[in-house]
Structure formats: C-alpha cells, structure tokens
Amino acid sequence: MNTNERRTLLNRRQFLRAAGLTGGALLAACAAPPAAAPAPTSAPAATAAPAATTAPQAGGGGEVFLLWSDINNTHQPLIEDFTKATGIKVNQTIVQYNERLNKINTAVQGGGGFDVVQMDTIWTAQFAAAGWVEDIGDRITEAIKKDVPDSSISAVRINGKIYGMPYFNSAKHLFYNDKLLKDAGISAPPTTLDEFLNQAKATTDKSKNLWGSVWSWKQSEALICDWVAIMFTKAGAQILDNNGKAVFNTMGGVEALQWMSDLLNTHKVADPASLEFTEDDVRKALETGNYALTYNWEGVLPEANDPKQSKAAPNVHVALLPGSKDVKSSSVNGSEGWAILKIAKNKDNAWKLLEYMASVAWQKKAMLIAGDYPILSSLYSDPDLQKSVTDFPLYGEQFKYLAVRPQVPNYTQASDIIQKHLYEALLGKATPKDAMDAAADEVNKLSTAP
Predict the structure, then answer these.
(1) Of the four, 5, 303, 309, 382, which is 20 to 30 A from 244 by CA?
(2) In this structure, are residues 379 and 364 in contact, taking their beta carbons and an 8 Å threshold?
(3) pLDDT in tens, 16-54
(4) Taking the domains of the chain in order of start, what are their residue ranges?
(5) CATH superfamily for domain 3-170+333-403
(6) Handedness of CA 79, 139, 393, 319 (dihedral sign)
(7) Which CATH architecture has domain 172-331+410-448?
(8) DSSP secondary structure code for residue 119 in this structure
(9) Which pTM was predicted?
(10) Are 192 and 309 spatial neighbours (Cβ–Cβ below 8 Å)?
C-alpha cells in the first residue's frame, strides 16, 4: 500500500465518520507525482468565476466503460445521477489501487476493455509517453477553465497537453496547535519558512517533551512531498528543465533540503522521530498535544479536535503552508485524474462522463457523501460545504498554490533515487549540496538509460 493509498483511506474514513456515514473510496492521492514539464508554480491561479460548470444534458444514451477504485461503492449515487442526466449507462470495473495499473496495461495491450480510467498522477507521464491516453485539451470548456485552478490541471498536463480531468483536489496543509503557539506568545501561525523556524524554536521545550515541529520524513514518498512543498517557496524553483533534465540541484532543491536539515540537526526543533514517521504517525503525534506545527494532508481535522480521540482538542487549526517574501504559499499536488484511453470505443460518451465529473452536481455531492475535495474553486464558498468542514474556504485557497513532482515515465525509480539522497542528508551522511548533486546525476542517467 503506497503513501497515497494510506493517506486517502485515512482521510475518507475520518470524513465519513464525522459525517455519520460509512464506507469510503480507495484512492491514491499522495503518491501521485505530478508534473515537471511546465515548471511547477506556486503562483496563484486566476480568480475563479462563479460556478458555471454544468452537467451535460440527457440525450443519446449508449454506454461507457469505467475502471476505478471505488471499492466500497461510495460514489454509486453519482454514477446513477450521471445516467439519469445523460441516458448513458456506466459499466464499472472496480479494483483495488494496487491492481489498477495492471488492469490498464492488460487492456491497452489487449486492444480494449475500458474507455475511462482513474489515473494516478504518478502514471500521467508514463501513459502520455506510451500513447495510451487522449489529449483532451481541445474538449476542455471555458467554464471548466474558469473554475478549475491551473495548479490542479497541472497534475494531468504534460508539455502543454492535457491528458485527463482532475478527480479531486488534494494538497498538504499547515496544521498547528494554537494553544502551544499562544503559550509561547505567538498570535498567528507562520506565513514564511523563516517564521516557521522561529515559531518552532519558541515552542520547543524538551524538558516538557514539547516539540516545535514533527514531520513524515521516513524514506518514502512522503519525504518527497514535503521537500517539493518547501522547495517551491523559492521563486523560480524547478525540478526538471524543458528538456526533462533534472535541475533541482541548482534550482531550489539544495536550499529546501538545507532548511530541512537545519531544522532537524542544527536547531533541533523537529522531533528526531520524524525520520521514521509516516503521515499517519504525524497525525497521531499532533493529537498528543505535544507538537506545535506540522505539514499534512486534508483529513487531519475533525479528528484532531475530537476530545474523545485527541489530547490536542480543541486547539488544532489549519492554515496555508508557509511561503517566502516572494511566494505567498507552496504546497504539493496530491490529486488523481480521469483519463480517456486512446483505444476507447466510446470516446464521446467518455468525454460526457468526464465533463459530468467536473460539474457542480458531481463535485458538490462527492464532497458531501465521500469527502472528495472539489476541483471547482467556486464550491469553496458554498454554504452547504462550509458546514461540512471547518475553514473550508482555506483549503480551497491552498489548492491555488500547488507544485508538482517530476512528471517522468520512470517516476517510481526517480523518486526512489531522490528519497535515498534526501534521507542521507537528513541523517548527516552527506551535505545537502552533495546529496542533491548526486540525486540529479542519477536521475539524469536514469532518463537516458536504454
């Protein structure tokens, strides 16, 4: 089970428990590495227009074949709504996340079987390079463009071409213990990395087992996620250049790793247990009430403020991840997408399904019944959805400031390389500069290997 799968299962279950529902979709949002072709950006998206994304109208009928991982049928009412709206029957194949890639590969090699597939962003570059998925850029309507942040589209875009529709929004956010900050004389959470460091120093008291920060810096995809979010607080940061060459060792990666290492090893205001923690461990640590600041995915709340489950209740709040003097905020894109296979036999119906999935009708209901954070910016001001999640508009704001991980066909191998060198530097076995130079060299050799 990858980082995405663990994290998303957790989020859906927390949301559904809070809403009094059961079940939950098995998705893969964190291990998703998005793109590098257009350099990831932390610049804000254009102001969203009022929700103008409407569902396709009934007529035509027919069918469409969908492969996804809705293993508990949480989204079945949405599929039924689509069929009622369009007359199109959806033939679903539902599999565990770990089975999905093999299913897609088998279908493509065998010449058919599915029209639409749920595409982990880890796979976007691979699918595009292999010619498996349709470029749907010319089908994207103006209504969708106005309401879906460009940062969300970036998860399914390679070299300017759009190979899917975002499924849901997902990013890391800043969670903080307001009581610990106030006890240290701090009135507001940090807005820059410099402020984060200062607040972590002020709230660390080892005699009381209080730590200024805690992280998911085990050698895993979670470590990559935090590094990317921190890296893109630097204006002009870049992971790959336009030719696909790794340049993170000269374009922000060293500075990000140096900040991480200093926090842990020099200032000693990050719990050393962070080196063995997953994102779920970080959530549990925050709930002890002994940690002031942390990065994590949506879903930490409301459990962290439930006194039956958390000693930190009711003091945990969410805020934008810190930026810098040049960048307001920077987080990492953790969403998935829907893709139309090139071998699809029902491409028009497949597009109607994707269009419906991006509609207000689908997006709002998916949030209410399944906890899928909407891709439509306008829905973060929806009063019904604001009732479902505290500070809901703030999550929508964070989704405007997303960076994407290297979008290369061999991402899994590239990620393993970068993780290894990040971890060695955090252990003090290499300097951040040497670690990043070595990582970039290995990633570039990987990309040129036959």
Answers:
(1) 5
(2) yes
(3) 334 333 222 222 334 433 333 333 333 333 333 334 455
(4) 3-170+333-403, 172-331+410-448
(5) Periplasmic binding protein-like II (3.40.190.10)
(6) positive
(7) 3-Layer(aba) Sandwich (3.40)
(8) E
(9) 0.84
(10) no
